[in-house]
Amino acid sequence: MDPSREAIERVFRESYSMVLASISRMSRDIDLAEEAIQDALVQALKEWPARGVPDNPPAWISTVARRRAIDRIRRRDNLARKHLVLAGYRQIEIDQADPELEPPPTVSDDRLELIFACCHPALSIDKQVALTLRTVGGLTTSEIASAFLVSEATMAQRLVRAKTKIRDAGIPFKVPEPHELTNRLPAVLSTVYLIFNEGYFSSGGTDLVRDDLAGAAIELAEVMAELMPDESEVFGLLALMLLQHSRRDARVNSNGDIVLLKDQDRSLWDEDMIEKGLRVLRAARATAKPGPYLIQAEIAAEHSSGHPNWPRIVRWYDALAAIYEAPVVLLNRAVAIGEAYGCLEGLAALQPLTDALDEYHAFHTARAHFLAECGDDDQARIAYERAIGLVGNDAERRFLEGRIADLSVL
Predict the structure, then answer these.
(1) Any long-range contacts for 373-376 (C-beta under 8 Å, 24+ apart)?
(2) Closest Cα to residue 133, out of 199, 61, 40, 208?
(3) pTM of the prediction?
(4) Which of 168-172, 345-349, 384-388 has the lowest mean pLDDT?
(5) Is residue 98 over pLDDT 50?
(6) How far is CA 384 from CA 176, 256, 403, in A?
């Protein structure tokens, strides 16, 4: 690949959300910021092949995008001024500081401010999470639609309405005052974890793990922990992500194929990250009664021991389901039940979830696993084929095809 195009793709993949956060904060308009960044990327495609890749490509894109955004704002304000003059007004005051004079804040704060703007209570929860996944997480509309189990067209409309609401309502790009944080925190935490999940287990493409997304989510949680040291769920989420991400190098083999947790080479686990996650978890335990993320961190800690206590994990899932009875939580609980008490118990726990999760590949994968364990290879094959039809990631598709091949051998 041409070095300039490769550098542009890397900037888009790794730095888009940071640049978007900075330009959005300055312009107060996410659509305008996205258009300015697209202008900058087009300019890079024209200039970099001839002039060479700059020393700091993200800074180059950010600078050019900022200038394009300022040009767009001034053209917009000039047009508004002319319309008002035509309407009979002589003195026009634009209630906006010159964006060129605003000092750029830190990258981490930029992204956190964008998250809180997207998670403003003026937006519905589904729009809050979806818009933040798009702007901060850098997920495609298709990936977000998959996470919400809706069509891509539906999600595209949802995103347009959310961005328009932020612009027209003048929602501020800032971290709220302490007394405002509590109402917004659940949506913010949910969004950060969804960003991490897309990095931890990519819903599409060829790679199972996207370190850029997982690392960004962990970084955002660390910033939130500094801002909100008394919120146990912030620390619970941070611990959960650290413990899960510590196994990233062992989750696929040299061919990019999935390696199940029980088969992973523990020497590839990041012990420093595990210790950090356990340290954060101990701090979270001391702050309050367990919430959803703290409970999930406890489960992750069980797995990080290398010898999970499945009955104890079932009890943790019971506690989680008591406060957050989502179908996916019940699915994970059913898997834990099957691991703790056998395949028949696992299948029985999965049965009530059939209608709710029939379009979710992980449900059929879990069911196929327990059917095979119980010796029903024909039904297991049908369930694996159903899962393959729903999965979007190439690595997971190869894994499922391998499980079917194993059934044929037995």
Answers:
(1) 373/338, 373/342, 373/343, 373/346, 374/343, 374/344, 374/347
(2) 199
(3) 0.71
(4) 168-172
(5) no
(6) 47, 20, 8
Angle at 61 between CA 57 and CA 64, to 5 degrees: 135
Distances (CA, A) of 233 to 111, 125, 188, 237, 290: 20, 18, 11, 6, 8
Residue-by-residue DSSP string for 258-308: B--GGGS-GGGS-HHHHHHHHHHHHHHHTTSS--HHHHHHHHHHHHHTSS-
Question: Residue 4: its pLDDT value, please?
Answer: 78
What average pLDDT score do residues 238-251 get? 92
**Torsion sign across C-alpha atoms 178, 183, 185, 191:** negative
Residues in the chain: 410
Q: What is the mean pLDDT of residues 218-224?
A: 85
What gap in Å lies between CA 252 and CA 257, rounded to an integer? 5
Q: How remote is the C-alpha of 4 from its chain's centroid?
A: 28
pLDDT digits (tens, 9 = 90+) for 8-47: 787 777 777 778 877 877 777 787 888 888 888 888 888 8
Q: Treating both helix axes as pointing N-terminal to C-terminal, what angle do 152-169 and 125-135 enclose, rounded to 10 degrees?
A: 90
Q: Angle at Cα 238 formed by Cα 233 and Cα 241, nearest 5°?
A: 125
